[in-house]
């Protein structure tokens, strides 16, 4: 039996800077993708555990059948005494999605919804599918007419109310010339409130973990390393106090359990996915006629070296396939750190996770 966990990252009043390839320091993402989460998490494991213990943890991910898979992080929001969990909208239309001349009446509003509340995601992709009431509500939304119906009640149109993105001025000082450079850095601030000396998160990030089998030792190790990561911070500008969070490590709630146990013929990625198995990729992207996907280029800097990791092109969250892809860990050690004679890293490999986690869905039949 699979062992699922739902992990919440509560940032309180700590802002965060989540950089992405192709955007400058003045911009920030609102969440952390699975490959970045893995890299930061496994680095925390390396700092926390002895060498032998760390290598055992790492090997759990390097095995052909990883012991645990993780999703990317997504936004949650506490509203009206309940948590709203947002999931990426699959790239294929849900069951019963209408086709015809009237599509343009609501299609723009539909396409703007990149993240769906869990209840809406479940209804569209595991339940009755898209309904005429949903269509009418989207038409009103596209015409800027608010209606207190199912989609709005579930928080479909209030995703961006969970956080604010702004910029802060910074000054960089050249260590040699002492010359100064003025610039701006983008930060995301999740909702929070203060009651006396207590700070309570009203929104934050969450992700899913799926252990292939019950393993209390591994779970405790990962939990401890994630707590350390929360103390040190995730993302950029950590030296300025950004990216600090507290961890809530939860058993999967009952409604979530229904979602992960659902039986279907399609699967939507909840993480990034990468594989160098050409035959497996060929099946996914050419032989699978129902496949619908997008890719993204992933890179980034090594924190302790002024060197870039090797670039990878990965499938993004929301991509849909007829079978759940597995994926694997990629060695992205920069060429400058590889010994020319042995063809091996001079110190230790630099890894990026392409191991995928997906959820079962129903989609509109072609």
Report on the architecture of this protein.
- The chain has 366 residues and is of the alpha+beta class.
- It is 26% helix and 26% strand.
- It contains nine helices and 18 strands.
- The chain has helices at residues 34-48, 51-62, 104-112, 118-126, 132-142, 150-153, 216-232, 254-261, 278-287; strands at residues 3-10, 68-70, 74-79, 82-88, 115-117, 163-173, 180-190, 192-195, 198-201, 203-211, 246-251, 266-269, 295-298, 312-315, 320-321, 329-331, 351-353, 358-361.
- The strands form six sheets. Strands 1, 2, 3, 4, 5, 10 and 11 form a seven-stranded antiparallel beta sheet that branches. Strands 15-12-18 form a three-stranded antiparallel beta sheet.
- Strand 8 and strand 9 (198-201) form a beta hairpin.
- Helix 1 crosses helix 7 (216-232).
- It starts with a strand and ends in a 5-residue tail after the last strand.
- The mean pLDDT is 88.
List the helices and strands and how they pair.
Layout: E1 3-10, H1 34-48, H2 51-62, E2 68-70, E3 74-79, E4 82-88, H3 104-112, E5 115-117, H4 118-126, H5 132-142, H6 150-153, E6 163-173, E7 180-190, E8 192-195, E9 198-201, E10 203-211, H7 216-232, E11 246-251, H8 254-261, E12 266-269, H9 278-287, E13 295-298, E14 312-315, E15 320-321, E16 329-331, E17 351-353, E18 358-361
Antiparallel strand pairs: 1-10, 1-11, 2-10, 3-4, 3-10, 4-5, 6-7, 8-9, 12-15, 12-18, 13-14, 16-17
Helix pairs in contact: 1-2, 1-7, 3-5
């Amino acid at each position: 039996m699979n062992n699922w966990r739902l992990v919440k990252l509560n940032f309180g009043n700590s802002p965060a800077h989540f950089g992405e390839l192709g955007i400058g320091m003045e911009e920030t993402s609102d969440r952390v993708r699975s490959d970045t989460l893995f890299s930061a998490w496994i680095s925390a494991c390396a700092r926390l555990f002895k060498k032998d213990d760390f290598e055992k943890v790492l090997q759990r991910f390097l095995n052909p059948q990883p012991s645990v898979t993780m999703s990317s992080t997504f936004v949650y929001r506490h509203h009206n005494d309940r948590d709203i969990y947002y999931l990426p909208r699959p790239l294929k239309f849900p069951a019963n999605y209408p086709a015809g001349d009237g599509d343009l009446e609501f299609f723009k509003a539909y396409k703007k919804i990149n993240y769906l509340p869990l209840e809406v995601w479940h209804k569209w992709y595991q339940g009755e599918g898209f309904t005429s009431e949903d269509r009418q509500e989207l038409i009103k939304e596209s015409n800027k007419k608010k209606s207190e119906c199912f989609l709005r009640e579930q928080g479909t149109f209030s995703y961006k109310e969970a956080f604010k993105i702004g910029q802060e001025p910074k000054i960089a000082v050249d260590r040699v010339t002492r010359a100064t450079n003025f610039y701006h850095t983008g930060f995301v601030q999740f909702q929070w409130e203060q009651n006396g000396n207590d700070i309570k998160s009203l929104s934050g990030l969450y992700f899913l973990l799926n252990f292939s089998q019950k393993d209390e030792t591994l779970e405790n190790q990962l939990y401890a390393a994630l707590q350390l990561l929360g103390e040190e911070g995730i993302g950029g500008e950590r030296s300025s106090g950004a990216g600090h969070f507290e961890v809530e490590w939860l058993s999967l709630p009952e409604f979530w359990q229904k979602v992960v146990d659902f039986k279907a013929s399609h699967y939507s990625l909840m993480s990034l996915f990468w594989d160098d198995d050409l035959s497996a990729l060929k099946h996914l992207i050419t032989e699978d006629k129902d496949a619908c996907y997008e890719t993204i280029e992933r890179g980034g800097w090594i924190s302790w070296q002024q060197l870039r990791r090797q670039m990878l092109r990965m499938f993004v969250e929301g991509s849909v396939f007829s079978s759940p892809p597995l994926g694997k860990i990629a060695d992205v050690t920069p060429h400058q750190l590889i010994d020319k004679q042995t063809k091996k890293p001079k110190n230790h490999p630099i890894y990026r996770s392409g191991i995928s986690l997906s959820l079962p869905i129903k989609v509109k039949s072609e």
